[in-house]
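Reviewers asked in the last cycle whether our approach scales beyond single polypeptides. To address this, we selected a multi-component target totalling 563 residues and predicted its structure end to end. The input consisted of the following lines:
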Amino acid sequence: MDMNPIISVAGLSKVYGNGHRALHDITLNIHSGEVLALLGPNGAGKTTLISIICGIVNPSEGSVTVSGYDIEQDYRITRAMIGLVPQELTLPSFDTVWHTVCFSRGLFGKEPDPTYLEQLLRDLSLWDKKDSAIRTLSGGMKRRVLIAKALSHQPLVLFLDEPTAGVDVELRKGMWNLVAGLKKLGVTIILTTHYIEEAEAIADRVGVIHKSELLVIDDQQALKHKLGKRQMTIELEQPIASVPHSLSGWSLELSGEGRQLVYTYDSHSEHTGISGLLDAVNSTGLLLKDVSTSQSSLEDIFISLVGTE
Amino acid sequence: MINTQAAKTIYKYEMLRAWNTIMQSFVSPIISTVLYFVVFGSAIGSRIETVEGVSYGAFIVPGLVMLALLTQSVANASFGIYFPRFTGTIYEVLSAPISFVEILLGYVGAAATKSFIIGMIILATSGFFVELNITHPFWMLGFLILTCISFSLLGFIIGLWADNFEKLQLIPMLVITPLVFLGGSFYTIDMLPPVWQTVSLFNPVVYLVSGFRWSFYEVADVGVGISLLMVLLFTAICLAIIWWIFKTGYRLKQ
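The resulting structure, written as C-alpha cells, was:
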C-alpha cells in the first residue's frame, strides 16, 4: 500500500531474558510526515517496540528499516535520523539545560550549532532556563528538556513515549501544539499514549497494541468506519413497556426506562433503514419527543478491542 | 567510520564532571598518598635501610603511584558508566549513532586521562619526600599509560556488570585492593616465603608494579618484557570482554 514508508517493521518479536514476551509478530509501516499514535494499556509492549526501533533493546526476531536502512546493520544511519523522548524523566540532574542539550547534539555526531539550539530552547520556552540545573526545574519543564535533547540533532523521526503521562491539562494542550508544529516541519511523529482523547486530538493514524500484539492500525476515520457504529436514539413522550410488534424488524433496544428506542445501524450501507423506521414508529401512534444520532468514539472502539480491564 | 564528534562529546563531558568535582577527583587521592608516604616512607621506612640498594621511601614510590592509579582507574571508569545506567540516561548513549568504540574512547579515555593526571601529580608530590631517579622515563610513561587504560577498561566492565551500588564497590574492595597490596607495592616478591612468591605470579599487579619500578631503579621482580606482555594481555582480555558485552547487549539491551 505504502510504497515508501519511513519506518517499516516486519515480523518483530521480543522475548526478554526473564521469559516475558513483550512483542509478538508486529508488522507495520509508518508513513513519512504522519503522526501515529500507538494506543494500549500499560505493559502492552508499546515502549518495547519504540526501544527496539531506537536501538535500546535488541529484537528477538524480525526486522526494522528506517528510510530503507536496517536498524542493526546500518545503525549509524538509522539512529541519526531518530530522536527519542523517553517516558521517564531520565535526565542528568546536575547538568544545566544548555549543557545537556549540547551534549545530546554532540553525541549524535553533529557539529555544535548554538543558533539552532537557541531557537529550539526558545520554541520550547526553555531559553530563560538555559543556565539552570535540571534538578531545579518543574516536571513539565523537565519533559520539555527531554524533547529539546531529542530534537537537538534535527531528527526526521521523533518518538514520544507517553509524552503527557502525569501532565496537567494546559501542558498537555501545549504538547499537542508542539506536535502539530513539528508535523508542519515534516517531522514524522510516533507517540504512545493510553489517553484515547490524545490520539483522537492529534494523530493521523492510530494503532492499538494489546498483550504484545498489534490489533489494528488505520486512519482514525477508517477505524471508526470499520469498527465503529452509529446509533439513532428516538425519545418518546411516554414510556412504553416493550417494543411494539410492528417494529420488530429493526431489532431495537428499549432503554431510558422505556422512554428511548435505540437503533444501531451501518451508516455506510445502501439502506440505513432510518426513514422506514421513523415511518413505522409514526404509524404505531407513539409520540416522539426527540431524535438524535451518535457515532462511536475511539474510546468505544478501544474498549471493544481490549476490553475494560 | 568512527564518529569522532560523539567520542569527543562523551570525553569532554566526563572530564568536565571530574573538574566539577575536583576535590573528589584529584585532591583526595593525593591526600591519601601523602598519608602513605608519612606512614610507610617516613615512620616505618626510617627503620628499614634499603631494598635492593634503593632507600625504602624511594622504593615504594612506584608502588604508591600504581596503587592510586589502579584504584582511581577502576573507580572512575566504573562510576562513569554505572551512573548513567543507574539514572536511566544511558538510553541516550544507546540510541546514538555510535558503536562501543566511541563509547570506550569517551568513557574509558576520560577515566584513563584522569588517572594519568593523578599519577603524575602523585609522582610530583613524592618528589617532595624522596629523591626520585627515573632511569627509563619513556618506559615509565608507557607503563603509566598502559596501566591507566587497562584498569579503566576493567572498571568499565565492573560498571556495566554491577546492578547496584554495593556491587560497584565490591570488586574494588574485595579484589583490586588485595591485589595491589599483595602485588609488591611495598616490598619485593622475594621477601615472601617461596609458596607466596609462586602465588604472586598469578597476580597481574605484580607485573605492573615490577615493570614500573624497573623503569625507575632497574630493580624488578620479573623481566620487563614479561611485565609489558602481561599488561598487554590483560588489556586485550578486557577489550574482548567489552566487545562481547556490546555485541550481546548483556546488561544493556536485553
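Residues 229-306 of chain A form a domain with the Alpha-Beta Plaits fold (CATH 3.30.70). We regard this as preliminary and will revisit it once experimental data from Aim 1 are available.
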